[in-house]
Specification:
mainly alpha, MetI-like fold, about 80% helix, single chain
Length: about 250
């Protein structure tokens, strides 16, 4: 953690020097101190917090829809070799399609508001969650399944004890990856489509030539991504404290 903060500090100092000496034109790349002063002023204004909430709204709804669809589908696909072989080609075909390529279609169908942002976020977030869930289900110990059947453990208990618990680490990784992807797509939709949020604020600042404000909003967006990742990691450690990977991480 300390080395990471030091690395960020070195980069910020370097950017400050490069801008102050005009090696990087200060009009296009303002000094870091100027950006931080602008950011401090924005943090006291309600408009920035409204934009943060608008971005988080699209992020949360899209990620929630993706999880609600991907997790049951992944468990159904991963639990059956026949179903997996049937849909594997479809998944491998659809998964690489970039969500931004769907923006024209989404705008035509749903306009430029929240619906388009949610659709793009959900589409991009769906695939990592689906694939991780499939891998988790397929990684379930067959001996544990046979043992559960031999002891006549109920179907729901088998599902939880053997399949779901084995899948949870994969699902946690999928959620963390999809969270970052969801934020990227939420901001991208705001930048390209003009949906309300941080991306739209970046566009407005750039169009008005207010580059310190533009970089300040970019800094807020990056900080938001770091914060969300930290939250997911904390939840993962708490929910999977029984898992060997978490015990090893804590020991390290």
């Amino acid at each position: 953690m300390g080395l990471g903060v030091l690395g960020v500090g070195v980069i910020l100092v370097a950017l400050e020097i490069l801008s102050r000496t005009e090696i990087l034109p200060s009009r296009d790349v303002p000094p870091v101190t100027t950006v931080l002063v602008t950011l401090a002023g924005q943090l006291r204004a309600p408009a920035l917090w409204v934009e943060v909430l608008q971005t988080l709204e699209g992020w949360a709804i899209g990620l929630g829809i993706a999880a609600a669809l991907a997790v049951p589908a992944g468990m159904a696909i991963g639990g059956s070799h026949v179903v997996y072989r049937l849909v594997r080609a479809v998944v491998e075909f659809l998964r690489p399609i970039p969500s931004v390529a769907l923006i024209p279609m989404a705008v035509l169908v749903a306009g430029t508001g929240l619906t388009t942002k949610v659709f793009l976020v959900a589409f991009a977030s769906f695939w990592p969650l689906l694939v991780q869930t499939i891998y988790g289900v397929q990684d379930a110990d067959p001996i544990a399944r046979d043992t559960a059947r031999a002891y006549r453990i109920g179907w729901l208990d088998q599902l939880w004890l053997v399949t779901v618990r084995r899948t949870l680490p994969y699902l946690a990784t999928g959620l963390r990856l999809s969270s970052s992807i969801a934020l990227i797509l939420a901001v991208t939709a705001e930048l390209v489509v003009g949906a309300p949020g941080l991306g739209n604020a970046v566009n407005a600042a750039q169009s008005g030539g207010n580059y310190p404000l533009m970089y300040a909003v970019v800094l807020v967006t990056g900080t938001l991504g770091v914060a969300l990742n930290a939250v997911w990691r904390a939840l993962e450690r708490r929910a999977l404290r029984w898992h060997p990977s978490q015990r090893l991480e804590l020991a390290a």
